Every structure is written in C-alpha cells, then in structure tokens.
Amino acid sequence: MRQVICPPSPSCSPDLEDFPLQYLSLADECRSETAAARSTEVKSVRAAAMRSSVSFHLCLLLCACLGVACVAGVCVWSSQWRGGFAWGTSGLKFNWHPVLMVSGMVVLYGFGAVVYRVPLTWGGDKLPWKLAHASLMLLALLLSVVGLCAVFLVHGAERIPPLYSLHSWTGICSVALFAMQWAVGLGGFLLPCSPVALRVALKPLHAWLGASILMLSIAACISGINEKLIFVLLRTVNGTQPYSSLPPEAVFANSLGVLIVVFGLVVLRILSNRNWERPEPGSQDMVYRPLLQEENE
C-alpha cells in the first residue's frame, strides 16, 4: 500500500505513545483532509478556467459583431450620403477607398490576427491555421492596395496633390509596414527552409509589429473619416448643414469611427491576454477540450 506523508498538524500528527489503531485512524483523517484540499484546488482551477473561457468567447463574439458593424456602417455611409459606388466616375470611385480600407486594414486584419486564439485551432497540425492566417492577411492587403489605387486615381483625375495630409501619411505607412510584415512572415514562418532559431527570434517582433500596424490603421481610418467630413460639410451646399452643427451624416460617421476604435480595442484585448494564447508544442493543454468537459482523475 502507498504510504501517505502529511505535514505535521494538530489533527494528523500522532504522538509516539499512541496505539496503532489510533494511528491508523489519524492517518485516514489525514488522507481525507488532503483529498478535500486537492478537490477544492481542482474546483478552483476549473472555475477560473471556465470564467476565462466564457470571457474569451464573449470577446470573440463581440469582435465578430463589431467587425460586421464596421463594414456595414462604412457601406451605408458611402451609399446613403456619398452617392454610392462606381469605378468609372471619379467622384463615386473615391467611395471605394473607405470601404476597402476599413474592410481590409481593420476588420479582416483583426480577424486574421485573432485566428490563433480560437481554441479549436489548438489541436492537431498548426500548418492549416498558418495558411488561414496568411490568407486572411493577404486578402486584407489586396483590398487595401485596391483602396489606395482608388484614391490615387481620383486625386490624379482631379489634380489633387497626393500624400499631403497626416491621414495620408499614416495610411501609406500602415500599408507599407503591412506589406513588409506579410513578406517577412511568409519567409520566416511558412517556408520550410526557414530555421527554427529564426522563427523564435521573429515571433515576438512579428506579434508586436502586427499590433502596431492595427493601431496605425485605426488612426488612419478615424482621421480619414474626420477629414472627409470636414471637406464635404465645410459649408452649406445644396442644403447640406455644416459639420459644426452635427447633421445626421456627421453623427453617423462619427459613430462609425467610435465603432472602429472599439473593434480595435477588443482585438488588442484578445491578443494581449496570455491565457488565451495558443499553447506551445509539447504543452499538456495542446489538445482542445470543450467547455465544462469533466476530467477523469
């Protein structure tokens, strides 16, 4: 029989003069106290894990809803107040710019950043999820490039100087950093010839730069919304109220900017929580377990 060793305590430390039967009784009491303490600790750990899992899924659901709301909001703004979409007409061509930049540099980028946090991706091979991450990021980059092409074509047709505002500087820097980040990530994490030491060295820099690009993109989007409102609501034209009087378009576009900021904060919250990171290979928690699944002790 396995011997149970307990720390000295008034309830389970017999004197030398005790009878053997009394010692056995105290040993049974010691074992029961140890089992009760272990059971309490296990329940506490499970409760903490349950709360963390519920918080994660709520944040993930909120992230998805905010992302859809951001894309829907910018589409409504461009179609309801700015005349809709067209590639041939110069003025309507510009409306593709906010839609593609918000959809690519903010929403798809945020979804691609949190794909590794989903617990269902923890089990099995990591390669499919690397490809999913890279594909979402590539799609976001392509949408952003098309959005930049739209605004450059409009500026060229209307003889407007390009890259003169802080919004344009922030936006072009975020897209350039994004392109560099994607290329380095492809070479460092997807190519089989890349050494493990390089991947280990690149991982923290890749994560930090990814969060920084998201913050830059959000700054570019909200500054672009503000700049557009100032231009189109500068003075009363065709019955349009000035920006300072907060017409319905201004209220809607300002609310869209707030939604974009909240979406970015939720994504950064998911990325910054170390308890929601994908476990490293070899970890005992590598296999995904559904919520509330009981363990066999």
Secondary structure blueprint with pairings:
Blueprint: H1 20-80, H2 90-93, H3 96-114, H4 127-157, H5 166-190, H6 196-232, H7 248-272
Radius of gyration: 28 Å
Strand content: under 5%
Instruction: Spell out the helices and strands N to C.
Output: HHHHHHH
CATH architecture classification? Up-down Bundle
Overall tally of structural domains: 1
- Return the structural class: mainly alpha
Tally of separate helices: 7
Task: Enumerate the spans where pLDDT stays under 50 for 5 or more consecutive residues.
Answer: 45-50, 283-297
Percent in helix: 55-70%
- Separation of termini? 19 Å
Protein traits:
globular, 68% helix, mainly alpha, Four Helix Bundle (Hemerythrin (Met), subunit A), 297 residues
Please characterize this protein's 3D structure.
- The radius of gyration is 28 Å and the shape is globular.
- It has seven helices and no strands.
- The protein is mainly alpha-helical and 297 residues long.
- The chain has helices at 20-80, 90-93, 96-114, 127-157, 166-190, 196-232, 248-272.
- It has a single domain, classed as Four Helix Bundle (Hemerythrin (Met), subunit A) (Up-down Bundle).
- α6 packs antiparallel against α7.
Provide a short characterization of the protein structure:
The protein is mainly alpha-helical and 297 residues long. 68% of the residues lie in helices and 0% in strands.
